[in-house]
Sequence to fold (416 residues):
Amino acid sequence: MKVADVMQTHVECIAPDTRIEDVARFLFEKGINGIPVCKKKKLVGFITQKDILHQLYPTPSEVSKTHPHTYDFEKMEKKVSHTLQLTAQDVMSVHIITISPQTPLLQALSLMFVKKIGRLPVIDQKNHLIGLITKADIFKSLVGNKLALAENEEYNDWLTKHYYGAIDWKKRLHFEIPDIINVLEESRVHTLLDVGCGIGEHALSLAQKGYEAIGIERSKLMIEEARKRREQLPKEMKARVSFFSGEHEQILPSFKKNIDAVIFMGNAIVHNPYNYEAVLQKTAQKLTPHGVMIFQIRNMRKILQRRVVQILSKPIHVGFSQQRMLVELYSPSSEQNRRLVTSTSSIFDFDGSKWAFFDSRSAPLAYIDKQTLEPILKTLGFHRLEYYGATAQWDYLFKNPFDPDKSDWLNVIAKR
Fold:
């Protein structure tokens, strides 16, 4: 591979007369270490955080007049204001290491290691800046792109740490639990199974309402959290709810009695991108004759039109961070003729003045819509199907009709 195959072609640059204050602001906002300096597209320098900080240190002549151990380092900080008034050409390095777009990729990486730098400007024969390549770009190309997306267990473990704590559970359950109970009462449900139960909020709430609830989740971290919450219940309520970690198809056969209802809340069914039909089949076999299934599924059609699904935020006190925001993004994908969607959850931290990227995870999800789900359910004997929609982050489940262009959620009641 050549540098041209991997390099960033949209490269920000600054003019030589740009003030250091503006350079520093740009570096902070972009979360980068350095930026090229160009004059009429020609590369004339490169400026980094280190170049700016170097202005604060004493010159050799200043050091020669004072013993290094007695130098006033507090006084050095006062030079910041002066430094910010300088321009890029006063601070930038003019001895720039560059490469051409036809340089072999690993040769560029070797050069970075030898010169102890993290990025290289890419120039053409006229010394025009045409790209930039970093160690991260090379790592992503050689390693990252060959890695499979996160397994759902690992992805869900990550969500346990960063996602579920940001949900306003009181508000969400206020809308959802009454609607679920209405369906359970109509179908004379006593025992229910919560598939992909997360940290167990729905199962725990329904156990408090008198139902025997079982939660299944592949993430061990989620189940540990669910069991901690179970311990906070009174003894009689605690006896009505239990949690198991593992794959649904492996756990279900071990249950000795049949189940009256199954709920798939919070997009749980789509987190089985390669085996959701088997999951539904195993579940249907365990249901009683009057059994009912409830689904809460993201409306994939609308999701893929706007890509950003939701933004959750919560206050935190970690290091300099005061607030944490989770942004969930969806993009279309395909694999061996399967209809898949890639979900990417990214976290940003706020330190009181700016947002900065913290972490990100991606996982494959099944593309399940009304047309996908209906024939599967009818094959399994569910001929009474009701479809509802919700257009808010958390809303009543079964109050409004489903609109494929407007609803954020597809909520389904399936009865035999």
Summary: The CA atoms of residues 165 and 314 lie 8 Å apart. The longest strand covers residues 321-335. The two ends are 57 Å apart (CA to CA). The domain at 153-301+368-415 is CATH 3.40.50.150 (Rossmann fold).
